[in-house]
Each structure stands twice: as structure tokens, then as C-alpha cells.
Amino acid sequence: MKRKIVEQGLSKTKVISLPIKWARKYGLEKGDEVTLEEAGPKLVLSTPKTTGYKQTISLQYSAIHPYAHRILAKLYIAGYDHIEILDITDKKGLEASKREIEQSLLGLEVIEESKEKVVFEAVIAETQEQYNSYEQKVFQTALQYAKAVRDAIAESDYSNKDIENLETANNKFSCYCERYLNKKGTKNYAFTYLILWSVEKITDEYKYLFKHAQKHDLKASKELLAYYDETMQFFENMHKLYNKFNMELFSKTIKQKEQLTNKGEDLLKKETTQAHHLLNVVSVSFDLLGNITARAQS
Q1: Residue 66: is the preceding peptide bond cis (ω within 30°)?
Q2: Are 202 and 60 in a shared domain?
């Protein structure tokens, strides 16, 4: 979309017009304030006025079955508020999808249901304060989960049901934050989105490690636990740098990467699966560090 600059008044103030469809969509009137952020050659214009606007979509059930819950999750993250599923042909499959959604998506509720259709609507508050809280919880639940998995494999005790709950909570907070960023946009939006997405991927690596150890009733060796602790500290440093970037910790963390990679590759020869997942934690954490650095410097 292009706009021509107009000059007004003796001071020759530079003025452009807002797209009328966009202004109407968000209910903007004379006297309302919008926010402008400089981003190099770009100006990012935004408005806090999203109340009343709902992004809607209708889908045939046959088009999304048997992956309905995954597609609904992606639509939720993309920012859709009102989702209609039409021509239901598999009630049992839909019920399973509804249970998955209840467990993984904050505030996406069924508001209407009949033989022919089901309507989901996002009913959760989407405020900056709520986002800030959940953003921290993405990191916190990931680290809590990593520590809980560590305790489980150290003792070969896989009976703690709270471990699974922590991973579920991490998914919920991650999806909410990704949705918020897609809907509202923030300064450094792209870097922030990639950071939160990476934290979720790291949590998945701990989940895969846990599932494998649980399946085979494994007890971790001292060598594996020592490496686990080092990689977990490496990941924890990312949270510290995200909250408050400082060059001393950044330099220390950079130097750890090669050391941790070499240790992990040696451990692969003895404990292949667990070492593989911990190496992935190191690799994704290092990618995370790049985005944290870019975010801090922009």
C-alpha cells in the first residue's frame, strides 16, 4: 500500500492519510491516538483499539480431519477469535479435538454446538500486562520442567504427574504469547516471537528425553547428569540474558557452546538418545542467544 506525502501549514508538516478500511476496522475516530515506532526506514503504526473487532473463519470438518486440533491451534496462534467448524462427520474425533484444545489453548471455548457445527471463540483477556506475565511463564515453566525431568531420570522415578502438567502449561503460555504477538505486534516482534518459539522447542527436547527414559525405565549415569546440569544452566543463562542483557554473561555463554557440543558428541557414543536431545538443547539455545542479542541491540 502506498501513500503520497502532503504538506500542510506554514511549517510544511508532512502528512499522510490512514487507509479508511483499516481505520473503520479498529473504530478509529478524530482525536484518537495511534502509536508510531521508528524502525530504520520504516514507521510502524499501531492502535490499542482492538475491542469489538473479531477475526473469523469457517471451515469444513472434512478439510481438517483428522488434524482438527492442530489446525485450530494454528488458527488460534494466527489471531483468529471466532472459528466455525461445519458439517461434522465424526463426533468422536471432534470430541477428542475439543479435549486437546482444552488442554493446550488458553481461552478458546466452545460457545455454540449442534449436529451440524461447532463454534469456538477466544474469550481470554489480551492485555499487555497479561502478556508480560505469560511471557515470563514461558521461560519459567520450561526451566521447571527441565529440572523435574532431571530429577526423574536421576532416580528412575517417573510417577510424578506434575511433570506432564508443566509441559502442558508451557504449551499454553507459548501459544497465548505467540497469538498476542501476531494480533498486537510489539517492538522487536519478530525476534520476540522466534525466542518464545525456540523456548517451546527446547521444552519439547526435554519431553522427548523424558518419554524415552520413561519407556525404557532408565536411570541416568553420573556423566549424563553432569552434562544435563551444564546444558540446563546454559539454557537458564538465556532467560537471564533475555530479562537483562549484559556482555559479561553473553561472552561467558558464547565460550560454553563449543565445550558443551564437544562433551555431548563424546557422550553420544555411550548414551545416544539422551545425549542427542541434550545436544539439541544446546543447539537451539545457541540459536536463541542470537535472537536475544539481536533483540537487545535493536
Answers
A1: yes
A2: no
Pair 138, 199 in one domain: yes
How far is it, in rounded angstroms, from Cα 291 to Cα 298?
10
Contact 229, 220 (CB under 8 A): no
Q: Give the CATH number of the domain where residue 237 resides.
A: 1.20.58.220
**Does 157 map to a domain?**
yes
- Which structural domain, as residue segments, surrounds residue 31? 6-46
Query: Cα–Cα distance between 106 and 109 in angstroms, integer?
Result: 9
pLDDT band, residue 116 (cuts 50/70/90): confident
Name the burial class of residue 91, with classes exposed (0-12), middle (13-18) and buried (19+) by CB atoms within 10 angstroms of its CB. Answer: exposed
Pinpoint the alpha helices (H) of the chain: 20-25, 61-64, 68-78, 91-104, 128-155, 162-184, 189-215, 222-243, 247-268, 272-297
Report the C-alpha gap between 157 and 106 in whole angstroms: 30
For the chain, the domain total comes to: 3
Question: Are residues 16 and 155 part of one domain?
Answer: no
Structural domain contains residue 211:
yes
CA atoms of 217 and 221, how far apart (whole Å)? 13
**What is the dihedral sign for C-alpha 157, 148, 206, 273?**
negative
Burial category of 189 from C-beta neighbours within 10 Å (exposed 0-12, middle 13-18, buried 19 and up): middle
Q: Is residue 33 part of a domain?
A: yes
Kindly report the pTM of this predicted structure: 0.85
List, for residues 182-224, the tens digit of each pLDDT value.
988 767 889 999 999 999 999 999 999 999 999 999 999 999 9
* Nearest C-alpha neighbor of 148 from the set 135, 169, 164: 164
Asked whether 117 and 88 are in contact (CB, 8 A), the reply is: yes
